[in-house]
Design goal:
This protein is an alpha/beta fold. The chain has 19 helices and 14 strands. Strand 3, helix 3 and strand 4 form a beta-alpha-beta unit.
Length: 450
Amino acid sequence: MSHRVLVIDDETSILNTLQILLRGEGFQVTVRSSGREAMDCWDDEPPDLVLSDIRMPGFTGMEVLAAVRDRDPNVPVILMTAQASLQSAIEAVNRGAFYYLQKPFANDDLVTLCRRAVETRRLKNENVALKKEIKRRDASGRGRPVGQDRAFLEVVRLAETVAPTDSTVLISGESGTGKEVLARYIHQLSDRADGPFVSINCAALPESLLESELFGHVKGSFTGAVKDKPGLLVAARGGTFFLDEIGEMSPALQVKLLRTLQEREVVPVGATRPVNTDVRVVAATNRDLEQEMRRGTFRSDLYYRLNVISLHIPPLRERADDVPLLADHFVARLGDGQALEIDDDALDLLRHYDWPGNVRELENALERAAVLSGGKAITAGQLPERVVDPPTPSLAADRPAGNPTLDVIERAYVLWVLETEGGNKAKAAEVLGIDPSTLYRKLARYGVEE
């Protein structure tokens, strides 16, 4: 692999000599006659090695060293000078220079030094990548969302695939399904895991306050703004910013957020200059944003900017087999070091309840039961009444005149299919296109006995 070397010197003859020498040894060489010129073009082709003279007018080699360290500390810098001294050599090394080379030097020595420098960089990069991979695998084992439902596992696997990228993620699902848990998991597995995870609920704040919290403000921009305040998008720099309930954001703020995502900069309230920000955005909603776009309440350009990677978390009622796993997970956490258990009757009730509040409702129900159990096994009597005795959907004949509800239509259809199959639940489930366990739960909800 050909390594890129940036050579900086104010003497044209030295630039030409080094360019010919290093190209002959297989390096890609870029030459610049000043440090400022070299830093201005840094982003065009970031080098693997910098070779710079120390004494240059305007922008010295020491300033080049500081600028390179600021952009990428892993890029080695070799400083060259014709007026070497012990003091300047020590200073260069203390500031992070890879080597301090005195002119004139032997060509072979320079080539050997350059090869050693790029090899050191390669090893450092491999070490960093290995540490990140180890950390990612550790985080995957510790913070992985709980569940074994096939559809849910597909969501988790996709989250694990996109986590190392910087792509924007949009998580959808009903309230309480664990959208923030999945967002934190993505952050833990990302290259930004060492950075902050900052979140805000867009539905929890009025528009004016939400704007200030997101983008910050300058002193005097509104009543009560007694000093400058950086926004959360700036506070999350180098990390992940989680925008919960993004569907509640006003159209005016949607425009400002779209600009932030496109330009990677924010303009604080009352300011005229933008502030650069480097943040990965993960958004979540319990609304149908496509429907909101048709209504004109959510901008289509922002939707497509957020919806680079789409993750939909299924509701808990569609993954009832995960209820025992989640229950064990929550009870282990609530036991405070004690081994709490859930008896069979209580577990059966948990499995057959619909959980309209999803995982959050299950956690709250178990917290209540754990408190009432006094550290003993959780029984059915300690569960909320709505779980122990859920309301049974009434028949169409019991309802007021009018169109039947979807629940009534579903119940009638399920029972008709079951009767058509002679009471064979396995065949009925196959006709309905659902798992037998799902059919059993529906029949239990309808109050149908064996």
